[in-house]
Amino acid sequence: MILYLIVLLILAAGIFWLGQTVLANPGITTITWGVWSLEMKTATLVALVLLTCIVFYIGIALLRHVLGLRRNFSRYREARLGSKASRALSQGLIQLTEGHWEKAEKLLTEHAPHSDTPLLNYLAAARAAHMQEAYTRRDELLKQAIESDSKANIAVGVSQADMQMTSGQLEQAHATLTRLRELSPKHPYVLKLLAKVLYRQEHWDTLLELLPELVKQNLLKNDDMGKVQGATLAAMFQQHAKAKHADKLQALWKKLPSVIRENPEAILLYARALHTAGDDLSCASLISNNLNKRWDDGLADLYGRIQHHSLGNAIQQAEKWQLSRPDNNPALLLLLARLYNQQKLWGMAKSYYESSLNQTPNTQAYLELAELLDTMKEPENAQRCYRLGLRYCIRGEGEKLSLTPTQRPQATPQAQPVLTPYNGL
């Protein structure tokens, strides 16, 4: 402001000096242009020049003012449209949340060009179209979302893949996620969605290759991803187990990340696959090593079902576990019952079956004990066990099992032979 005043004062002083000089030295000025010539007083010429400058300045100022009005009007209009777009975005999101899909889509798309966040408008509108099952319109809105912000490829692609997956468009979702993985190979949500799509497509080979990266990204923690891992391992294990390829099964197990090989559920799946493949020796070794480190009821159940190379050694191992677990674990008691049953020590097997079932009812154990009692010629106890097992299957409620002691028949004394004297002939 001070500089402006100084310039203005200098300009006024210059004009005053010029006026005084012209008035002090009057004269005639001639202006020649070709054949034309114009004569006027010097004072008049100076006055005209000054007037022209003033008019020019005023014209420029007026022009700037007019242009400024237009610019201000344009800004006002843009601000008004932006405010309206902001309100429309808010209302559209409310309608979307309340489930008014058609209203939401209309509000969000009409004002998207004037919105400060057109990406949000188009994404929300695409979701509204998706909920109306208007998939072509949804994809067009997603395309407009990318055009509104070229840096949002991942965000838009993830939304598209998620909607494609929920609508059952698995092939399209697979293609979208494959493209996104090329753009961002380690994006965690892209990997998670891709794993879910592969799971639903049952592409176990591809999903198995993805497991190490899922483990590295720590994406297998929640229940949904745990199911993905379990289903993948079960499918791949059973593929080799049914073909009786125990060597391929073991090679596959060694390739898995250590985090998976230490997972109890994965160990149980692998042990069952070894049993199905006919490699009970490796299965028994695997179960024994893991139960020595950490008890697992599922592994204990399987240990009692497999064929042992040395049944006596297996019983000794189970008895050691019993000594280290004085809590009478029902799975351990059932394990001992099955091993004694295989050894044909039926009295011991019967006792352990009864103890296990009185702690935790088990449909398979009821059947095994009933068949054992039939073998031991105890029909009343066998029938009681069959009845309890049937009621447990139907009602899901266990009942106390009390077997009737059996009386061994007393040996009847043999009649002594009667000796008759020999009289000869």
From TrEMBL:
Cited Pfam families: HemY_N (PF07219)
Ranges for region Disordered: 404-425
Transmembrane helix in keyword set: yes
Transmembrane helix in keyword set: yes
Protein name as annotated: Heme biosynthesis protein HemY
Main location: membrane
Gene3D superfamilies according to UniProt: Tetratricopeptide repeat domain
GO cellular component, one term: plasma membrane
Top-rank lineage group of the source organism: Bacteria
Compositionally skewed regions (Low complexity) per UniProt: 404-417
Membrane topology: Multi-pass membrane protein
Keyword tags: Cell inner membrane, Cell membrane, Membrane, Porphyrin biosynthesis, Repeat, TPR repeat, Transmembrane, Transmembrane helix
Originating species: Thiothrix lacustris
Domain HemY N-terminal, chain residue ranges per copy: 30-132
Subcellular location: Cell inner membrane
Entry-linked NCBIfam families: TPR_hemY_coli
GO BP, one annotated term: heme metabolic process
Role noted for this protein: Involved in a late step of protoheme IX synthesis.
Biological pathway: Porphyrin-containing compound metabolism; protoheme biosynthesis
Transmembrane domains' residue ranges: 43-67
Alphabetized InterPro entries for the sequence: CellSynth/LPSAsmb/PSIAsmb, Heme_biosyn_assoc_TPR_pro, HemY_N, TPR-like_helical_dom_sf
